[in-house]
Design brief:
With 154 residues, this protein is α/β, with parallel strands linked by helices. It is built from five helices and five strands, in the order H-E-E-E-H-E-H-E-H-H. Helix 4 crosses helix 5. It is found in: Cytoplasm.
Length: 154
């Protein structure tokens, strides 16, 4: 299976099924889930990265448990729109995941998502550094997924 556009993801997944959003960091994977109507994304869990196979199994288990039909993965593009090593790593994760299971995947530009979430957590919620560390990646995943859902609605 190849990577899809958001429009292709929407067309190829059953209505009434949620999607998961992933923020692939160096040490963690932030996971968010949409509701079944794909209107609202909410932070879900944080997966501490170990080995790819275990990380992928954790993501697939979450998909099964939520009956999610697709994945939106944040793609960390450079500010000029080019792809660096982190973006290539995200593409490799998607390719390898699809070798384990034919999961519909689309990418969403995630430039500045983590910094926007950090700013929100500091300014609006007044969270200290330790509390932010526990929520920033899964909140960034929700930000990424919500951006994709909003983009599809126009």
């Amino acid at each position: 299976m190849t990577v899809l556009t958001l429009e292709e993801l929407a067309a190829s997944t059953p209505l009434g099924t949620p999607w998961l959003g992933l923020d692939l960091g160096e040490k963690t994977i932030g996971v968010a889930a949409s509701d079944a109507t794909r209107m609202i994304a909410s932070p879900l869990v944080l997966i501490r990265k170990t080995k790819f196979t275990q990380d992928a199994e954790a993501v697939l288990k979450l998909m099964d448990g939520r009956k999610a039909s697709g994945l939106v993965i944040g793609l960390p593009l450079n500010m000029d729109g080019s792809e660096g090593p982190r973006a290539q790593s995200c593409r490799a994760f998607a390719r390898n995941l699809q070798r384990l299971r034919a999961v519909p995947v689309a990418f969403q530009d995630e430039r500045l998502s983590t910094s926007a979430v950090e700013r929100f957590l500091i300014e609006e919620l007044d969270l200290n550094r330790k509390r932010r560390a526990n929520v920033v990646d899964r909140t960034a995943a929700a930000w990424i997924l919500q951006g994709a859902l909003d983009r599809l609605r126009g």
